[in-house]
Structure formats: C-alpha cells, structure tokens
Records
---
Amino acid sequence: MAWSWRFERADGTPAASRDVPRETFGSQSDAETWLGESWRGLLEAGVDQVTLVEENRVEYGPMSLHPED
C-alpha cells in the first residue's frame, strides 16, 4: 500500500509549486515522520494544509501546517 500527502492551500485547492515534493511512502508512520521533518519547507513553498491518503482513501485531514497562536 502506498501512502502520500495531498498538499493544499487554505481554501482546499491544490498547492501547485515546483517546490512541493510528490513522494510516496511504504507506511503511515514513514509518511508522518517525513511530514514532521518537512512541514516548515512545505509552508514556505505555499502549502497551508495537508491530507494523508492511502491509495485513494483519505486517512485524515485536512490538517493545517500553520502553528497555533
């Protein structure tokens, strides 16, 4: 099974940028670890929120990348 992140702007539209990676992961844990290490760069690339997807099924999200105030 392949896990991936769907990258979105705050309004739910896809975040389209050459700086946004299109990676797949072998497990949910690998995907979550990668996000924990990469979220700041994604935010700088224009990503506001992410959704975790397994194949075509949404596991959870959208989840904001912006720090809580």
---
Amino acid sequence: MTATVTPPSQRFDPNPDHPLTLKQVIQTIPRDCFQKDPRKAWTAVVLSVAAVTLGYVAIALSPWFLLPLAWFFTGTALTGFFVIGHDCGHRSFSNRRWVNNGLGHLSMLPLIYPFHSWRLLHDIHHRHTNNLDLDNAWTPWKKEDYLAANGGLKTIYRGMRGGFWWLASVAHWAVLHFDLRNFEPRDRPKVLRSIAAVVIFAALFFPTLWFFTGPWGIVKFWLMPWLGYHFWMSTFTLVHHTIPEIQFRPKETWNEVEAQLAGTLHCDYPRWVELLCHDINVHVPHHISVGIPSYNLRAAHGALKQQWGPQMKETKFSWQLMRVIAGQCHIYHPEYAYQSFRSLNS
C-alpha cells in the first residue's frame, strides 16, 4: 500500500467543539488560485481537441495489434473532454454562464453525457462528500443492506467493488443521469434539454458512423475509446475517496472539513495521464473549493499541504493500490472504515 496515512492521533477530530471550519481552510489558499485565466482555459481545450484528434488518427491507421494502445490513449484524451465539462459545470472555466453551459454540453456530447444531469448530481457529491446517507459517488453499502439484497444486486455490487470497478461509472451514467426522478422539479427542464442534446447527437452520430464504417466501426471508433474513458472515470472517482484509511460517516457525525480535507485523496498518476486529464487527480483543493480552475489546482494543493499537511492523504497510482482497494474496500464499517466481502463469511 503506497498511501501516506496520517497517524490516528493526528487525524482531524470531528467533534462538534472543534473550531476549524471549511471557510478557514479556504482562506489559507492564495487568492490567485481562484482567478480564471482565459488563455490557460482555452489552451486546455486546444490540447484536448488535439489529443483526441491524434488518438482517432492513430485508431484509423494502427494495425490490429496496436489498436489497444490507440484505444487507451484516445480514451484518456476523451477524459480531458470530461474534465473541461467538469470545470464548466462548476463555473470555474469562464465567468460567462453561457460559455460554461455551451462548452460543457459540447465537451460531453461525444461521451453521451447529459451536461446538466451530471452537473446537478455531481453537486450533491460535493455538498455531501463521504456522507454515508447522502453522497452519491462510491458510497459503500452497510452490512445489513448488503445481506438483505437479492442475489443479482449482490453480484453487481461485488463486481463494481471488486475486479470490475472500471465499469462502475458506466452503471452510474446509465442508472442516474437519464431518470428525471433524480432531480428537483425546478431543474427538470434543464435536464431534459441536456438529455435531448445527447439524444439528437446520438441519432445523428451513430447512423453516420455505421453508414461509413459498419458495425465494427462503432466498436472501433466509439465503444472502445468510450470504455477507455470510463476506465479513468471509474478509477479517478473511486480513488479520490476510497482507501482503507478514509472513513465515510453517517449524517449525524459527518463533518465537512474532515470529509473535504482528510476524506479526499491526492493521487499521483503518470504525468502524461495528468496532462491529458488536466490535473483532475489533484483533488483535495477541488473539494475545498470548486471555484479553483483545474490549472490552479497544483498551486492550491501546495498551499494546503503547507498548512494542513498532517490532515491530508496522498498516494501514487499503481496496480497494487487498485488491488488493495478492490480487495478490501467493500462494506462500510463504523470503526475500521471498510470490511471485505471475505470477512462477512468469517
């Protein structure tokens, strides 16, 4: 396990008398980190467009034995599209709402992601990070809920929490983002517009791709890169808040500073991945304040680490890390954060 874990005696203490507030933590980040820079923002867009274009050229020209590499590169580049939409959803890309909404929709259309659906559900995750009762991203099941579930649900949950973690964001995308019942009535017109944009795009894109490339073209040029994107979407989202030392808490004992500062993980990935994905892995400052643009996350992280280093957690991406998470972080435990599926039978 490569995580740098704070000794328990030094961890953030979420007792109700603790004076630390999230506003106080935010105030330790330099003001420059909150400033939007249009040149840097649009440079990120150009980088992602160039990388995705390069990826599709590679797919078109690669012999069969190099296609997996081309698919993986293109999927990683498409993740950059998502991160641009992510900044737009948090209004940290531009000061103009119409720019954020327009670019947010455009960047997510190739991923078949309805922008406002994602934006609204993602805001819930930020407001209730690591809240066992309210967070909607990778919240572990309680033991009693798991044991009470039917066999099919148990199998799906075991897969998403185990070796098939990289498909979990596909399920999240399909189950949550197209169901109007997941949104407040006042938000449903926006959600419908985003869903309509995705449906229109798909109705034009897929028949055209089929006409020119056939069924194999759908797999070659869309499905495999899309699954590559979901590999990173699942992995980033899982790792951001899931190691054996990060505790989800019921709403009665949940504390926002603990959740955002100590319950959010910084993870270093290969630099080319971080470059194409616009530093989404520098995640602690993003949870302290969603107003920090992606290109300022590293500076903000440095400031936070200088002030709050003992409360923060860091790790490096590795397959050993994923084996630990997928092999241990299964069922919520009130004292030890997680227990594995194996422990339920012991």
---
Amino acid sequence: MPRPALVGTPQTGKTTLFCALTGTDYATAVAQAGAGGGKARVGVAKIQDARLDRLSAYWKPKKHTPAVVEFADTASLVLTAEGRDKNNQLLASFRNETDGLVLVVAAWKGDNAAALRTEAEVKAEVDQLATEFVFADLAIAEARIEKLKVQVTKPTPTQAKDRQELEVLRQLHAAFGEGKPASSVALKGEDAKLVKGFRFLSEKPCVVALNVPETALGKSFAVPGYTVVPVCAKLELELLGMEAGEREAFMGDYGLKKLATPDLVMAAFRSLGLQYFFTAGDDECRAWIIRKGDDAVEAASKIHTDLARGFVAAEVVSYADWEAAGGDMKVVKAKARLRQEGKTYVVADGDIINIKSGV
C-alpha cells in the first residue's frame, strides 16, 4: 500500500489534515500523539474516482473496492539549528517507512489567520523543509563514504563494487553540499541500484498541501517545481463529519463546489508514479494499484500470483471506450473495442481488464 508522510512545522494543521484525509477522530489522534513515543499515526484514505463509481453503477456488484493510500502523521519538524538533532529520528522514519512526502504549510502568518503569506513566503518554508531533507541525506552519505574509504583499501570480493558505490556517493555528496537534492543527480543502471537502499529523503516525490484559512478559500498559490493543493483542513474536517445533505448546504454557503481532500489524496498518489486499472463484474468492481509502465503480467500478479504464472492474455477495454459505448459491454464488443493483449502490453490508467490464465 502506498504510504506518503505528512511533514510540517508546528501549528500548520498537519494532524487536522490527517484526520480529514483518513477519517480519524481528532481527539483520538491527539491522544495517540501524546502516548505514541514519536511513532507515526497511520490512517487509510480511499481514492474517489468517478470512473469506478460508474462501473459499479453498471454492474451493481456485491463489493465496491477503490484504491487506497496510507498516510502517516508524525511529530512536527523544528527548523532551527537546535531542533535539527531532534529531527534526526523523525527524518529516519520518513526515509525508511514512507514512499513520498506531503509538505503541510500554513498559508497564514504566525497566529494571525487573517494575514496571508505571499507566494514567496510559502515557497521559503517549502525550501526550508527541502533543505532539511538535503542536510539529513548529506549526513547519511558522509557516514557511508567514511566507511567505504576504508573498505576499498582491502582486497575483498566486494572491492570493485565498493569502489563504484563510493564514486556514486561522492557524486551525491557533492550535490548535497551545494544544497541540491538527490533527484538532481541523474543516476542510471547499476549506479542507481547501488544507492537505492539509502532511500534518500531528497529523492522522494513531494506534494505541497497548503492549509488556507476560510477567508482564502478559492485563492490559488504556486510553488515552482511542486504540485500545490490548497485545503482548509479545519473546515474539511468539519464538513466530512456532516451528513451529505447538511454538508452540501454548508459547502454552498462557502462557495465550494467540491472538497479538496480527494484532490490531495490523488495528487499524493500520482506523485508516487502510480496508477490503477479496473476489474469489473457482478461480484466486485475494483481498482488495482500498479506502477506506470507495468505490463499485463505485472497487473495480473496484483490480482493473484497464479494469474500471472499462467498468463495467456488480457482482455482490455479502455475506460473511455467503455464509456463511449454507453457502459454496455455488448456495444463495446460490437464496436471491436475489446482487445486481446499479450504479456508485454503496457497497462494504461483506467484500463478495464479481464485476465485469461491457464492456471
């Protein structure tokens, strides 16, 4: 299950946002924070997709199973020289236990929700957080380089590999020293594999969740290089606690056409290089998570390893073709939109697939 972490400084509304995303009770989340010893709170958010809803409306299945994202919420980062030592354990958990980062930044200044930051001020905090990740990666690279400098002098079976790893880490170390992230160093093939296990923070995909006050609803902000999703965490949490009819009325009062949290869930999901395909039928309509570029056999393995082992073919119709046919599989077949694809077929986002297997 994909797991991005919510990262932010104190008083940015990070835990409120976590509760709005995952449906966690706020009082429970706060109690967990006090008793958790710094451990992450984890909650699951369902990805809302109108395409899957439409498939379920057509098939009326026994089960409707959307894709999900698991969000982690932890203690806040303290962006001072004194706080950096305290951040180390927290950053280590981000490095080892999460796939991506959602940077939660407040759109207001200090304690005054009415005083909005400029885009430049928002960018400055995002840059500060990114710098913390680079500093943490620099320390990891330095420690490993020192060990390797000794190892490469010894005639061991791994000497050649150690030398190659040392050279790659020196490239990364140079970038970190200039304040550049690991993602700025173009590593390929074996070089990339050698350092994959470090899971550098500055290589993880990031999305910015800009927590805006109610007075700034509808205002757009941009941070170059990042996807920014404005969300009023406090209001979203309140709205999500209402019955549908009451929620719709309140949203109308605020001029909101839709909630922002589903967009943030999707943005975090997409940032990880993920997509999903659908299976549909009377028993279940389901979204299956795969990586972009995965082939039909890999998709089959998500459903069951036996389907991948005995893979014969994949019956595929794109969602767009299915919808153009009025959601009628008979029309899909009549228009020859149902394709037979082999093992090397690269699955597209939203494909509706039926796997044929000999096992």
---
Amino acid sequence: MSARVLMYTTAVCPYCVRAKQLLKARGVTEIEEVRVDLDPDRRDEMMQKTQRRTVPQIYIGETHVGGCDDLHALDAAGGLRPLLEG
C-alpha cells in the first residue's frame, strides 16, 4: 500500500482501535497517529480541517475518510483498497 495514512486519535478510544485493526487487515503497515489528547493545538487543527470533534479522524493521502464508521462503510462499498493503493 502506498498511500499515507494519518489518524487523529486519543489514548482511550475503542473506535480508533477498530479503525487501526481494519487498516492493518487491508495491508497498511504505517499509520501516522496524532494524539489530540496530548496536544490541544493538534485537536484545534483537526477540528478546523475536518469540522468534526470526534476521533478517530482518518486521512488516506489527501482524502478525509472520516471516522471509524465511515472507514468501515468505505471498505464495505469497495472503496478502501483503491484509495489505499493511491
């Protein structure tokens, strides 16, 4: 998989864990995690970029996928693998 994956997360987030599990199952070996619970400025950045307050917020390449449910829906629709392949 060639696309860069960026995920805004917190330490205690079951949805973040589920999203990471799905991405790893689809061949993603590296996920750039931004812990918004440790850095309030990064949370502000996330909210400005995504217009959302919840985690995870996932980017694949330049595409904002959304949260965990959005990621699973994208996978079910067959759109995740092509996005990961860039």
